Amino acid sequence: MSAGLVATSIELIRNAQADSGAYPAACNYPTYEGFCWFRDASYVAHAMDRSGELESAARYHAWVTRTLLSERTRIEAAVADPDHARSRGAVLRARYPIEGRTTVDDRWPNFQLDGLGTWLWSRLDHARRGGRPLAGDDAEAAALAARYLGALWDQPNFDCWEEAGERRHPSTWGAIALGLHAYAETSGDRNAMATTAQIQGALASRGTHDGAFTKHEGSHAIDANLLWLGVPDAVFGLADPTFQRTLAQIERELVADGHDPNRYRADTFYGGGEWVVLNGFLGWVYACQGRSVEARRCLAWMGEQANAAGHLPEQVSTNVNDPSMVNVWVERWGPIAQPLLWSHAMYLILADALNVAPRDRLPPAAR
Ligand code: BGC
User: How far apart are CA 18 and CA 33, in angstroms?
Assistant: First the structure.
């Protein structure tokens, strides 16, 4: 573990955070900068919480509160008629301009529900750790998110990779159940509790093939995003036999040498290389399972992917599925995003989960 990379990651995230409180997905990458994804940023906020930077996380959560309250009419309409909302695209976005200009015409597959589920969990965990309490507008925003997820969870939507069309994805169900479960536990909300149970039922009956979770309903393929069903550990639990078979399949099919997963076999985005965030999730699973040797190997591998400035990329072009596609994407969108804030977040989360991170934050004077 590089103590330096912990400090660099915290500083990078702090400097990249917009005045609005939003975290951009990446710096120096035209397709991502200027936008904040609920998914990426909610893990970033969680990483900041775990690193003692509660104030930064609080500013992000306040931005989400403002964003959700500004979308109240849209949310209420979608809750009242989910089919209509989906068919009209009258749904929340997966990514918002970091300065809150919701009028921006963003041609992006924006109907994605996992990010909001992850936010709900991250928000409640933040309050639990002594961060900004869930009251007033914040409580209202969380309630809106819970109602929206409760009404729309079974609507087909894009998964976290934003490529495979609108389907029902177990990884997305897992993220929604995670958020609703946290909300139900905190508020005692019975609807959230009942929906969590329904999603668990759907996962078990419609989200599996041959005893393992699948990439999407009806598919036989595996995807490393299914690691989300193991961590954070709330939906099924690491000991669940279906999760264990899923993990074994990910290790067999997607992990080349024990610590660097590809997303899925048919991935061709920048050739479909090895993803730093997924390595973080795999290490997090191992850390929670008490497999600390493997978890430390994951952390070390992540650290090795940093450039001279200490910046982590989104993915690296090793063990690519389709080498001919690397340059196609470089020409289309430029070199691979680096630094990607989510990669840094996963480094911080794994370092903390391993409990080896010395509290090596910058001295207050340098902040
Ligand atoms: C990934 C998403 C991510 C986004 C911003 C996309 O390429 O597939 O998971 O949220 O980049 O980092």
Answer: 11
